Amino acid sequence: MDKLKHLILIVPNQRYGESIIEFVKKIERKYSKICYITLNDPYAQLEKSFEENHIAIEKFFFIDAISRVLKVQKQNYNNCIMVSAPNSLIELSLAVSEVIEKHKPDVFILDSLSTLLIYENNNAITRFIHSILVKIETSDAEFLMTVLYSDEKNNAVEELGMFVDELMQISKFQ
User: Fold this and answer.
1) 32-57 pLDDT, tens digit each
2) What is the CATH number of the domain that holds 149?
3) Which of 82, 146, 157, 173 has a CA that sits 20 to 30 A from residue 12's CA?
């Protein structure tokens, strides 16, 4: 497969958790510096899941936009920036800029577009993702976004399809 820099990965609704873990294992084998932007699972939960699945957490830096919404007990983590909410797009954008500057990741993972669709309107999502893509492009990193199969035909996802190299089933990701 040719190198694809920016992808939207379609995840089956009924196997979401398993599919994400399988995908993250592939990413962890392929890259040495990974930024995982989580809009779904708190950092502490991801850390535990990664460790249980023998995923090298030291390769990851996290941007967590859900822990504060869920009122998870605040802790200071060396490899995580906490953002106030998934719809705090300016905070998310600033966090991405900070990660690019300080950590220079090879790849960014956004988990997930479907969560953004719950919190924001399509136009805001499209503008936000486009601005993030521009930042990531200048850093020469790759950008991989997940979306539930049930959201594949959403207008925002279809519009974002114009900005990425490919939309593909997560199971086909190598």
Assistant:
1) 999 999 999 999 999 999 999 999 99
2) 3.40.50.300
3) 82
